[in-house]
Amino acid sequence: MTGPAPAAGLDAPASAARPAGFQPGAERGRLPASGDLALPVTGAKLLTDPDGRPLRVADLPADTDWVPLGTLDGVPAWATDLTTAGTLPGRARGWASLAAEVPEPHAALASRALAVITWRRTHRWCGACRAELTDKPGETARRCPDCGLYVPMQLSAAVLVAITRPGPAGHADELLLVRHATGPTGLWALVAGFVEAGETLEAAVHREVGEEVGLPVDRLAYFGSQPWAISGPGVLLAGFTARAADPHAEPVVDGRELTEARWFGVDALPAELPPAYSISRWLIDATVTAAGA
Question: What predicted TM-score, i.e. pTM, was given to this entire model?
Answer without folding.
Answer: 0.83
